[in-house]
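pasting for the record
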Amino acid sequence: MLRAAASAAAAGALTTGCDPKRSADASSSAPAAGGPSPQGTGRSAPARHPAARPPTRAPGLPVEIEHGPRDGHAVALTFHGRGDPKLAGALLGEAERAGARITVLAVGDWLDEQPAMARRILDGGHELGNHTMHHRNICALPADAAYAEISQCADRLRKLTGSIGSWFRPSQTRRATGQVIRLARQAGYPHVLSYDVDSLDANDPGAPAVQRTVLDGVRPGSVVSLHLGHAGTVAALPPILDGLRRRGLRAVTTTELVT
């Protein structure tokens, strides 16, 4: 089990807290005890999709991960999974044409509305994770409600793919509290996935601004926060990928980045 001191050292000893505004920084935190798997609804789970992955364990990295190794040549583009499925499909297509792989942290109620998107993401060679059920301010919720946000989305993922997904990212927060980390571990996620580059694309500043923000901030090992469902993000992705290539960087899944 990872120790709090090692976690702080690996993540730059940032302070843990909650902030409903999105930010480029995240922190490490000490692990909590494990617990039961997410509760199901009594229906049997389908066979595991070939591309589905169980939650990733990354020994030596903090419980809350904001970036991968700085001495490599890879970055992870991670997307909050919600919004117009046509825009989501267009973005996945742009990534695939460029040979890039991304990580989508899906919101559970979006998966309820767009269940085919889970298979579409995995069939493209990308990975899929949990971004809570309703995208509420999870740090402000009591423990039972916060656990329901995590476990209900995990249940949707399991029914659609056979796995609760590779990663958990809390909603409306740049840093998870100890309670949220504990509840995520209880639901089966050994790590909380944060990021060190915030594209600010949810504000719809336009493709050039998204491109500039990402390329100005990205470094080897970066985890970049982006969103599905925004036309400017779709338009920005090809020049972002071109800019990464010019720097000798490639876009990989988060699992590939950290393990």
